Amino acid sequence: LRELVSRLHQRGVQVFLVSGGFQSIVEHVALQLNIPTANIFANRLKFYFNGEYAGFDETQPTAESGGKGKVITHLKEQFHFKKVVMIGDGATDMEACPPADCFIGFGGNVIRKQVKEKAKWYITHFDELLKELEE
């Protein structure tokens, strides 16, 4: 994944992380991939002043059903992207296409039957995408 993101950056392609996970965890992944924190869309944890867990920020688009699609729509409007490709391993990733123009199912961590069966393009290793970038 690190090599794929690096090659995309070399080509001037912006990479975003859109996750139903929590910002504080996704930020660590973004740091390893040289993805700016401004390009992360994830749920945010909330804490009381005394440090106790207070829940999560329900105003984030990723906190609601169809939220990943809302993020894609927002990105297309904000940056005027001609094409947006979504790569993911879950049903909520697949559901974000449309508004994403293409969905690539990923089964490198876990193979979800529904995603594998419905994705037009399904990969199990990012080397497959790296080969496509070379062509």
Salient structural properties:
7 strands, three-stranded parallel β-sheet, Rossmann fold, two-stranded parallel ribbon, 135 residues, alpha/beta, 21% strand
Structure overview:
InterPro entries: HAD-like_SerB (IPR050582), HAD-like_sf (IPR036412), HAD_sf (IPR023214). Keywords: Amino-acid biosynthesis, Hydrolase, Magnesium, Metal-binding, Serine biosynthesis. The chain is α/β, with parallel strands linked by helices and 135 residues long. The chain has six helices and seven strands, in the order H-E-H-E-E-E-H-E-H-E-H-E-H. It has a single domain, classed as HAD superfamily/HAD-like (Rossmann fold, 3-Layer(aba) Sandwich). 38% of the residues lie in helices and 21% in strands. The strands form three sheets. A three-stranded parallel beta sheet has the order 5-6-7. A hairpin with a 5-residue loop joins strand 3 and strand 4. The longest helix is centred in the middle third of the chain and has 13 residues, at 67-79. The two termini are 18 Å apart.
